[in-house]
Amino acid sequence: MGSEHPDKSVQAVFKAMSEAWAAPDATEFVACYTDDATVIGPGIYLRGREDISRSMAAAFAGPLKDSSRPHSVQAVRFLPGGTAIVVTRSATILPGEAVASPDRQHLVTWLLTRHDGGWLVEANHMCQA
User: Fold this and answer.
1) Model pTM above 0.85
2) Which CATH architecture does the domain made up of 6-128 adopt?
3) Is residue 106 a contact partner of residue 41, using CB atoms and an 8 Å limit?
4) What are 61-86's pLDDT values in tens digits?
5) How far, in Å, are 22, 69, 92, 100 from residue 29 at the CA level?
6) Which three-class secondary structure state does DSSP give residue 60?
7) Domain ranges of the chain
């Protein structure tokens, strides 16, 4: 872990995801996830990096084209064995919007695990904020 504060290393995951979303680059986006990660949300159940990548590539080319997805870390809890539970406020901001509409503002619970000194997403679950 070095001298970097662990919360900053966790926040780096969300920064990387937001940057990949803005790019938009589905390959870079899913680089933040484990091979067998799970994503659950309203009407969404994605299993594995390939499924997540395919879904995000389609979304970036379609309804989420030119959108952004900022994350604000609300809480981090470190568990034994290199695991962290993180809660974020996340929003999908469409082109021309300054703020996401309420239906695109989410509370998200993330399960992260340590891999080679960094963090990867094992699972996340989002609900409307």
Assistant:
1) yes
2) Roll (3.10)
3) yes
4) 999 999 999 999 999 999 999 999 99
5) 10, 11, 15, 20
6) helix
7) 6-128
| Distance from C-alpha of 112 to C-alpha of 71, rounded to nearest angstrom | 15
Q: Map tokens 């680089």 to a residue.
A: 31
Name the residue with tokens 């699972």. Answer: 123
User: Which segments within 6-82 are labelled E, that is strand?
Assistant: 33-41, 44-47, 71-79
Helix (H, G, I), strand (E, B) or coil at 40: strand
CA distances from 39 to 6, 30, 68, 69 (A): 24, 11, 18, 16
State the DSSP code for 92: -
38 residue type, one letter = T
